[in-house]
Amino acid sequence: MRPLLVRLHRWMGVATALFLFVAGLTGALIAWDHELDAALNPTFFYARTAGPALPSLEIARRIEAADPRFDVTYLPLGVEPGRTLQMMVLPRTDPKTGQPYALGFNQLAIDPATGDVQGRREWGAFSFARINLIPFIYKLHYTLHLPFMGSFDTGTWLMGIVGIVWLFDSVIALVLSFPSVKAWRKSFAFRFGRGGYALTFDLHRSGGVWIWGVLAIVALTSVSMNLSDPVVRPVLSTVSTLQPTPFENPELMRKGAPGQTPLTAERVVQMAQAAGREKGLASPPGALYYVPSFNGYGVGFFAPGHDHGDAGLGNAWLYYNANTGKLAGGSIPGTGSAGDIFMQAQFPLHSGRILGIGGRILMSFTGVAVAVLSATGLMIWLKKLGARRRSAAAAAARSGVTRESAAQS
């Protein structure tokens, strides 16, 4: 059995090493994406004008009126003092061509005191420019910037499959790390004095053993986040009842009565605010998310600047049909079935935010460790591959000498 596990670990490790090396280093950085982005792009994050902020919904109306080529799709409802209001936009359809307008941007930074646009960028663009660098790294982490093939998200699927292989390989690696009961202490040791191959081997084996639990969580959550709908939720639903996601709920797309006026964004926020009080949510409505294709709204509950969630299971969200005004689903941390709570925990666990600042530090360290484990694994494989080739060449040479001697005799 052990020789088979060794082969599986070898080939699973080689197949995923480069992907995990990239994911590890990028993950170490994006644990601090907002802080790094603000340091690199202060004019995109810090408002030029001091003073009270205009209402976010009023700013959004002004922006859409000034440039009718797009809809505001994500809008913070509050802003931290001194910070810009950062909204996401989606192009509308050009009636002349039937195609979406070519905007060249999908995110705006607005001076909240004046409503003026301070900056534009294409979040997630393949670009090393300073304004795009952190979003580029963030998207690289989970898609490698691979293109869609039709409607198939190649990068997200690939990294999800890498996560599945990594999860299975982690179990195999743990088994291989403890070859016998008597030698268990060696699996935790680092031979710093030896250096060279011995230390490389210990960094790979013992390093993985020390943080195995964290690595397994990161691997599992990477699968859950990349392949949630096609893989994880269907599997999880066999053992636990799951609330449908808003986009699985037909109520989100239900059309209103003939002549019925769609709800305004202000009305949706008022409804969500009242619903939040009824459900005992401590935080106010913090952001409005609009999905034009569904004509639906999502309202998140958090204080300004805390859209990622500070600790625990993250922020609550409620979703509304813009035609009928009916609640079409929601996610309130800590509520629902065991499966619902499991799904709520995936991003907080993967990002480390479930433990606050300490968790983010842990994830940065883990990201570097994943890169080291991947690199040392490749180094060990290459060294053993070279040894096997030299051994095979020597055996072939001996065989040739033997045949030549036999021929001469």
From TrEMBL:
Keywords: Membrane, Transmembrane, Transmembrane helix. The chain crosses the membrane at residues 12-32, 157-178, 209-227, 361-382. It holds the Pfam family PepSY_TM. This is Peptidase. The keyword rRNA-binding does not apply.
